[in-house]
Design a protein that fits this description.
Blueprint: H1 18-28, E1 34-37, H2 40-43, H3 47-59, E2 63-66, H4 75-108, E3 122-125, E4 135-138, E5 141-142, E6 147-148
Parallel strand pairs: 1-2
Antiparallel strand pairs: 3-4, 5-6
Length: 150
């Protein structure tokens, strides 16, 4: 049994994922009989990548089993796989667009990027402490262990 799990913190929008590469290498070496995947979008977020990976697994003699539904038992199953793949790709694009618009709006309104810490020599002032506006200010930089005066 190959301990392949989604959780390497790599995006399903790319084929360059260490655990996926190990799985593909193992399948090519005839080390895998069956591959259980929760749903097609967990295998890859792009429909073209889903088709490529499924075809590659079949050529290596690997039976791909999706736990949320059967695969390839009828033309309707194939159509459903295609539609699910396209919807997953669309969802990812919408998430990226909303994220981009949200970050742009926050930057235009002067908000601090919540994903990064304050630059060296600055301290982060939260919305609660900053009167409804988060910002960085020159001065003490606090950390969990100590404070340093700049």
């Amino acid at each position: 049994m190959f301990p392949f799990r989604h959780g390497d913190a790599y995006s399903g929008a790319t084929l360059v994922r260490p655990a996926l590469e190990r799985l593909r290498d193992l399948a090519f070496a005839n080390g895998v009989d069956r591959l259980y995947v929760h749903s097609p979008d967990r295998l890859a977020r792009k429909y073209a990548y889903q088709v490529l990976l499924i075809d590659e697994m079949y050529r290596c003699g690997v039976e791909v089993i999706f736990l949320n539904r059967e695969l390839g038992q009828s033309p309707e199953d194939d159509l459903l796989l295609q539609v699910q793949g396209m919807v997953a790709e669309y969802e990812r694009a919408k998430i990226m667009e909303r994220s981009r618009r949200g970050k742009r709006h926050a930057a235009k309104s002067g908000s601090v990027n919540v994903l990064s810490c304050a630059p060296y020599g600055y301290k982060y002032v939260s919305k609660a402490d900053g009167g409804g506006q988060a910002h960085n200010e020159i001065g003490y930089r606090t950390s969990s262990s100590s404070s340093t005066n700049i």
